[in-house]
Amino acid sequence: MSHIQRLPRFLVLLLAFWLVSLSPAAHAAEPREGLLIVAFGTSVPEAVPALKALDADFRAAFPDAAVEWAYTSQIIRKKLAARGTPVGGISDGLAALARKGVKVVRVQSLHVMAGEEFSALERAVLLDVKAHPGRFEAVYLGRPLLESRQDAREVAAAVLKSCGGRAPGEGLVLMGHGQAHGRADLVFEGMRRAFVEADGLTFMASVEGSRTFEDLARELATRNVKTLWVQPFMIVAGDHARNDLAGEEADSWASRLRAQGFQVKTNLLGMGEIAGVRAVFVRHARETKDDLTREPVKP
Ligand code: CO
């Protein structure tokens, strides 16, 4: 008779539970992988469907990962906190993942192009990594929506498909955001080119970038098109989409195009509401090998 058989039954059970708790399977409940989804931020209710759909797709693609969101805009974070629905910044999100036991983080930007906002995000993550050495084994940074030719082609196909009501011969005008300092101008031109390759009746301009509405109007004047659909080329159909693009005021793009004699129809869909666009973000989160805790990998 072994000693263990002489022990009271409850002690044997206790010993068994203790042994099980030491096994790796018991610790699998703690997420090792985490995802920090970073957007500029938005406080308008119209943005909710796009953000919810993005959140759902990321959770489906990384079922074992803890998921946190961060907004880079301080103004928007203050607004949301005052409303009782706070969203943290990058450091808050990384700290939340660390508290959940995450060791490998993927930071995925929801920026459209690597402009000023994306640089700020990258810097904020780096500074946080430096301030907490050893907290994570790896912190991967996912690239914004548009970088490679593959990105541009997949986004063009998805956006074109999303304007379902458009009949042959009708044009599609897309409003991008753009930045005054021009850091993303060339990416914008590359995207415009991908749209034209996919569909010759697609036209693009930006709110703040170097390609303006006037450039668009000049191009349209040379083309034989009577009906134009207008659609935002932004992740959420927020203020720019509802006012600057499709608003009733005389200076909105829709009003100005009507004044030029075009028949204008609107498709106020944020790109976050388009499955094919979300798939590019998820692919970028999956593909990244850019570990900010290490020296860059040399070829
Ligand atoms: Co803006």
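^ cobalt (II) ion complex. The CA atoms of residues 140 and 289 lie 6 Å apart. The longest strand covers residues 33-39.
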